[in-house]
Design goal:
heterodimer, A: 561 residues, alpha/beta, eight-stranded mixed sheet, five-stranded parallel sheet, globular, B: 466 residues, alpha+beta
Amino acid sequence: MFSTAMSLSTAAVVAGGAVRPDAIRPADLRFCGLRREALGIRLLSASPQAAAAAKRKVLAAAATGNGAAGSGGFDYDLVIIGAGVGGHGAALHAVEKGLKTAIIEGDVVGGTCVNRGCVPSKALLAVSGRMRELQDEHHMKSLGLQVSSSGYDRQSVADHANNLASKIRSNLTNSMKSLGVDILTGFGTVVGKQKVRYGKVGFPDNEITARNIIIATGSVPFVPKGIEIDGKTVFTSDHALKLESVPDWIAIVGSGYIGLEFSDVYTALGSEVTFVEALDQLMPGFDPEIAKLAQRILINPRKIDYHTGVFASKITPAKNGKPVLIELIDAKTKEHKETLEVDAALIATGRAPFTKGLGLENMNVVTQRGFIPVDERMQVMDADGNAVPNLYCIGDANGKLMLAHAASAQGISVVEQISGKDNILNHLSIPAACFTHPEISMVGLTEPQAREQADQEGFEISVVKTSFKANTKALAENEGDGIAKMIYRPDTGEILGVHILGLHAADLIHEASNAIALGTRVQDIKLVVHAHPTLSEVLDELFKAAKVTGIPQAVSEPVAA
Amino acid sequence: MAGLLHLHSTLLPSASLLRQRGGGGAQAAAPRRRRACRVEAKIREIFMPALSSTMTEGKIVAWNASEGDRLSKGDPVVVVESDKADMDVETFHDGFLAAVLVPAGESAPVGSAIALLAESEEEIPLARSQAANLSSAAAASPPAPQETVAEESSPAPPPPPAPPAPVAVSAPAPPSPAAQGGARVVASPYAKKLAKELSVDLFSVTGSGPGGRVVAKDVEAAAASPQKASAAAPVAAARPDVPLGSTVPFTAMQGAVSKNMVESLAVPTFRVGYTITTDALDQLYKKIKSKGVTMTALLAKATAMALVQHPVVNSSCRDGQSFTYNSSINIAVAVAIDGGLITPVLQDADKLDIYTLSRKWKELVEKARAKQLQPQEYNSGTFTLSNLGMFGVDRFDAILPPGTGAIMAVGSSQPTVVGTEDGRIGMKNQMQVNVTADHRVIYGSDLAAFLQTLSKIIEDPKDLTF
């Protein structure tokens, strides 16, 4: 059944998309060998029309096949525990591959990203971006615009975020339903090899078998010891996204991308913000140069101050007319440093994997700080370091790269493998973005990481930078703040990392991440054309500014699948 | 600064601003000089470079090195933001960063010293002491460095470390509710930022936020109040002991006044004048003068009573989007004190009787002279009076202190020939008042009605004494 489905799928693709790929292929072949490989990948997943056509045909096939029991005696080819973005991505790709797929969800479809993360926060950030513009009289004046006054209605803003989340949630649910993915309700537990039980907590009444299992249970906000959450004055991103209040003064514990995005929202809505960061520098995850510039653009001119190198050892919610109290201790000496009195505190200290009750003990799997250990193919490792057959874990639960799209990419990679095509995801090609105003985005290594690697492996690196100040489109928008920076190998032209801070940086990063994923070298990409005037020319300039000293290879080889 | 340049004149920069220091001659001469005299130790200045042909001033984005760090030639020592881009500026010499003269976030004109580089570690203290001498002149001096006048022998300019600037009171800060035990002050992030910008000492600000927290408007109020009587500034300015023809750096207070004056330009103001007959008021004044009543108190009282009927004139607009009807009527009255201005506030002037008000006023003036006013005694005004009548000024206009709604300039009362109601020519004492107001919240008709009320009160002043 499994192989039948495979061949059906392939046949469907060829039948459905026969005309276009075949017509293109010879032309592409003339350019370089790479194209063929790239096209091969595209054939299976990226060409939307072809893929859609394939899905439809596969579905028809699966529908007929569904009457018979599952493949090879299993109820399903693939069971995914957790219907977040990772599980959803895996499910869709599995259907495309002709796998009979079920997804188990104990809460709401969409997981953190859609319900309590990326999605509603983007709605709030859309509001904050506009508020910022409207409030910036200088900016408006320089464009010749006159705005008498700007204001907002908190509840309507909150509704916008909530509506967006429900809309995306139903989109996600519908997309899976329409493709024939079985959505099973309840908490899933792995009870044995290729066996899953699900149902209400404590009552896993239903048992199903699956050829392969993917755990995609995600994460929850991490709350350090000593912090008392009341959901009103001390809360996590889960509550903050509901925007039940806009405090006059809010402390944000943690200055990673979650904290940074919320600082953008709160300051735009009139709050003052105090960051509490345990490390010595704000925005520790970012390339230091980007972090420094971000501090100048996103922190210093705003109503924000900060304490670095301190832990919030104790946070007490406001009660009896007393404000929220935050005890700060020195991160190194643990000595008490000071007590903050604020109106609210947002805990944005990262996320903890949600992996309890998965029955991992049945499989001799021991979590590490809650994370499920996996190998580079996302196959779960047991306590003895051996891969557990047919059991995979993707997304925040394995902690490799806690981003929604990384989870989805890992899921797709797993589906590729179980469909018979070995696949290792290159995590260095996964872009990340922080949706402040302006945005920050990055892919690959930071400069210090690249330097370390260069030292270890004995190669040179070079860094080039371009400024948004020099970009016509950015200047037309009166948004010249920002830089783009690329770290690359001057000998081979390999792109090691790209970091952007500036208008629409999150959308701009994909040219770089695609180049890294496909192994495109600087000397090749610098020759491609960008429409003028567009923000994409910031990257164009970056590529053109790079100097490759080594002998350019006639045929560049993909470095990553 | 001139003094410092003199000390190591052989190390003066060449004309080129980018090449920061002198040539080989200096190098050769240096060791000998150092042996001869410690004072001539090799301490170099790091200058603000010209990063583009149009750059006149650069902002220090960040110092890559901190004081005491060893630097090698070519090390990026500072990041400078010019009109075009941010650039790393390298040092041209080995040495130790002895003293940073222009901290990150501040600007300096091209060619001015932004830091001192000591050749050896032993010279760091010397460089620091030079920096200390320098900072008073350098910090506040206007661009062109060659015009600086702070000569070595001239009396030291006002103490360099900026005191709680616009707050002309150097008396120990009163314990504000937010400064529990005096050890710390709870201030919101923006209040802190503003305080730094406006050089306001947070410990001297009374917080009005939740739990006595200092919030932005408290800082603004603290910064705005002392310069209220700006209209009277010319009086304070003409000091006979000023060395003519020289450029004198602003004192911290003058700097703050200047800043606030420029800030006041952001407020769209307009003026309405009125002529008020003061015969009755003058008579009343004569009658109760012996009881310690002053003209200032009478005017303040009359103004406060008029404000009761026109609350909008007693309001204030801070953000351009909303305004506040102030709950009390606090009349700030500008007083010129030695070297500056201060505005003692008659709080609740509408509620106090004229005798209490007069006593209060005397107290305030004495305190002001002794520089012992407490913050709430000079920064809580909601309406300002500036009276130059005693100098014979018949009319003038005042600049509106940011954060308040209106200020009234009062001229002298003078005998004037007028046409009387019964068609004859007569003599009356008349004074001109001129109100400057924030037109975002106070309109012409508001002021007109207020002035009409005020003139009625003054022309029939029986209510002033209850």
